[in-house]
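Researcher: Let's run the pair from yesterday's discussion. Sequence first, then tokens, for each.
Model: Starting with the first of the pair.
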Amino acid sequence: MSNIYCDESIILLDVEAETRDEVLTTMGNNLVNKSLVQPSFVPAIIERENEFPTGLPTAGVSVAIPHTDVEHVIQKNISVAILKSEVGFGVMGDDSEQVPVKIVFMLAMDEAHSQLSLLQKLMQIFQDENELLNMVKQTEPKAIKEILEEKLNFQEFKGGHK
């Protein structure tokens, strides 16, 4: 696999949270503890989500794709959280609306063009209701990792280390 980091330790299942910020803090702190992002990543991702919401009302299961600037990233990665209960996220492009999110794909990219490529690939997953429902049903992080590796073709995201 290329140098986009995605292993079972950053795929979180049954995450309990009542607010969007709790979800982002839980996921972000996990990445900080694994030395994949700077400590500044957590407040930066919350601030960016406040300004530019990333909730998407996708068919079957709504998702969010929080991300922030490259200077907070040590090793590019994608973290996934399957939430125990849906949590409200602002709708991308319309921060006056909320969407009940069940899956969060947190992106930490070290190059802007990598982030765009990854977002385009993720959109293909988001358009497949059955794939999203399949991900929510998984009981092992390894199964979600395998789905992502197959669907996202991580080989395309080679790039520089910091």
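Model: Moving on to the second of the pair.
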Amino acid sequence: MDRHRTLLHLGQQLSAATAAGDWAALAAINTLMGSTLPQLAAQGKWNPAERAALAALRELHLAAVAKVDGAAAELGQHMHDLTNNREGWLAYALDSDNAPTGTQA
């Protein structure tokens, strides 16, 4: 297995999934990295090009984690806002159900 090429390929996949906000792809790549990296490490010492590719992959992974954390925080805030405004949404929904539609029965 060409470690340098594998690391670059993982980095490309990780970068693309992060840019697209593709959470399912990020999860799959994270799982793949978890199984692939130990296999690559078991092949012996890393050469300078492999170490550079591994460092770049680490940075891409940190960026992906930051994006996921940001999206989770944003979703959490949205859920919090929905919960806080629940009574208003319910009142609006009930009022909308009772509003005249302009049609006659």
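Researcher: Give me one sentence on the second I can quote.
Model: Residues 72 and 78 are 10 Å apart (CA to CA).
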